[in-house]
């Protein structure tokens, strides 16, 4: 009766109950008979041996009887047979056969899981889905090191996708992709990453302006032995066109293309004051004996102050005190003010002549060779004489006839032979070398900017 009954089916249980009940009925009869006989034998034997202990025998009888009763109950009611089963109505095999046979062990966890799956829903859908694009990176020697430039923006692709989706309790759990159909290919995103340390150092890009650290020669090819095609002065600017390698770069200088060594160049980031030096240098390279004088010099008022302050030859500080008059005449009458000052220096000996000192006339304006002092004009101050001479040069010497000049007037051009020093020399001075002497003063004044 202690065997494992976990795998019995319902029919086996009923059959076993029936057999137990039948066996119990027969055993009960035999057991009663045995107990009756045993009591008689025990009593007879006991009385025969213990004639004086009647009261103790009665208590012993009770104890023995209880023990027999317990043993009997254990026999008739085994631990795997319930009380209800022991006294159940006997049923025939035909009645048992009406029950459905279940030959599998019941699994409660499986039953719970199956009932829980009643809330698990699956559906098949077909939908368009985005396809992510990839990002490609290209090393680029014409960009500053580590700088990134988006060369091409990426675009999502499209796929037509058929899937089975699973939901539990209304929440998405998983999906199984059945098929994909490509609709639109994604477009990759392309990013250029700079590798040039030269460009990174100077914070420049192709197309930017750079400056020469020293005088240099523009080469036809990117090599030392190549032909020279132009000479470039210190601080002049060039436009960066290409960077074939870290040693050489292609540039444009005033429309001429060629190659310079990268080590000879700098930038406004690396050398902040180079821009000002370049401005001055750009002015200086235009200074030559054929310079057109009916144009402004491009100098600022501060430039004029720098040029005329502290000149050793200007002992009386006449030019230092009147630099604003030369600047104002340039702006008002469209004449090169340095040219105007150079004539004054040449004609007055730095303001030391008698005419300059006594008549405030730095130019000897109006004088003739025969009577220079008597015929020269007398001015109230130096600024008045500077303005008068500027107007005369513009109207009669520097501009072709009919040119609009100042105050709505036009140039008379009575002595016009071109807007250069040589042209003015033709009718202004009897000395044929006058233009060369004036030009030396011009060069000296201009180079005080450096």
Can you describe what's shown?
- With 450 residues, the chain is α+β, with helices and mostly antiparallel strands.
- The chain folds into 4 domains: 10-96; 118-192, Resuscitation-promoting factor rpfb fold (Single Sheet); 203-281, SH3 type barrels (Roll); 286-449, Lysozyme (Orthogonal Bundle).
- 40% of the residues lie in helices and 21% in strands.
- It is built from 16 helices and 13 strands.
- The protein has helices at residues 10-49, 54-76, 83-86, 93-96, 108-116, 197-202, 274-284, 301-308, 318-321, 323-333, 337-348, 354-359, 372-375, 382-396, 421-428, 434-446, and strands at 120-131, 135-144, 148-152, 157-168, 171-184, 189-196, 209-212, 216-219, 228-232, 237-242, 248-253, 256-261, 265-266.
- The strands form 4 sheets. A 5-stranded antiparallel sheet has the order 12-11-10-7-13, covered by helices on one side. A 3-stranded antiparallel sheet has the order 1-4-5, with no helix packed on it.
- α10 packs across α11, α10 packs parallel to α14 (382-396) and α11 packs across α16 (434-446).
- The longest helix has 40 residues, at 10-49.
- It is rod-shaped.
- The two termini are 123 Å apart.
CATH architecture of the largest domain: Orthogonal Bundle
User: What series of H and E elements makes up the topology?
Assistant: HHHHHEEEEEEHEEEEEEEHHHHHHHHHH
What is the molecular shape?
rod-shaped
Computed CA radius of gyration, to the nearest angstrom: 62 Å
Q: Provide the domain count.
A: 4
Q: Give the percentage of residues in beta strands.
A: 15-25%
Low-confidence stretches: 1-10, 35-57, 79-104
The chain-level mean pLDDT equals 84
Q: How many individual helices? A: 16
């Amino acid at each position: 009766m202690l065997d494992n009954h976990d795998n019995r089916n319902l029919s086996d249980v009923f059959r076993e109950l029936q057999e137990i009940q039948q066996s119990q009925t027969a055993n009960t009869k035999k057991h009663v008979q045995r107990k009756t006989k045993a009591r008689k034998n025990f009593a007879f034997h006991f009385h025969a041996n213990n004639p004086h202990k009647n009261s103790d025998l009665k208590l012993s009888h009770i104890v023995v009887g209880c023990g027999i009763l317990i043993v009997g109950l254990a026999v008739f009611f085994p631990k795997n047979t319930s009380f209800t089963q022991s006294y159940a109505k006997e049923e025939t095999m035909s009645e048992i056969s009406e029950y459905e046979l279940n030959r599998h062990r019941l699994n409660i966890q499986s039953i719970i899981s199956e009932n829980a799956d009643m809330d698990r829903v699956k559906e098949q859908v077909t939908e368009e889905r985005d396809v992510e694009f990839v990002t490609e990176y290209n090393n680029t020697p014409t960009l500053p090191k580590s700088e990134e430039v988006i060369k091409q923006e990426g675009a999502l692709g499209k796929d037509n996708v058929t899937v089975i989706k699973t939901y539990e309790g209304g929440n998405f759990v998983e999906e199984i992709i059945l098929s994909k159909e490509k609709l639109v290919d994604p477009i990759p995103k392309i990013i250029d990453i700079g590798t040039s340390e030269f460009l990174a150092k100077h914070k420049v890009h192709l197309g930017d302006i750079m400056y020469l650290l020293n005088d240099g020669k523009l080469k036809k090819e990117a090599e030392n032995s190549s032909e020279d095609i132009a000479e470039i002065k210190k601080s002049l600017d060039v436009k960066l066109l290409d960077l074939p390698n870290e040693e050489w770069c292609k540039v444009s200088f005033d429309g001429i293309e060629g190659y310079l060594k990268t080590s000879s160049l700098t930038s406004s980031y690396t050398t902040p004051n180079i821009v000002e030096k370049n401005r001055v240098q750009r002015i200086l390279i235009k200074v030559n004996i054929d310079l057109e004088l009916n144009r402004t010099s491009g100098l600022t008022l501060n430039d004029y102050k720098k040029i005329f302050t502290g000149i050793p030859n200007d002992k009386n500080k006449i030019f230092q005190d009147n630099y604003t008059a030369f600047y104002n005449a340039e702006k008002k009458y469209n004449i090169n003010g340095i040219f105007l000052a150079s004539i004054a220096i040449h004609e007055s000996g730095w303001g030391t002549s008698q005419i300059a000192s006594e008549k405030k006339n730095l130019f000897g304006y109006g004088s003739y060779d025969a009577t220079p002092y008597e015929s020269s004009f007398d001015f109230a101050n130096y600024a008045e004489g500077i303005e008068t001479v500027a107007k005369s040069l513009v109207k009669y010497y520097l501009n072709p006839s009919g040119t609009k000049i100042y105050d709505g007037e036009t140039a008379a051009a009575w002595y016009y032979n071109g807007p250069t020093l040589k042209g003015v020399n033709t009718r202004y001075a009897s000395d044929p070398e006058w233009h060369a002497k004036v030009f030396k003063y011009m060069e000296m004044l201009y180079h005080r900017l450096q």
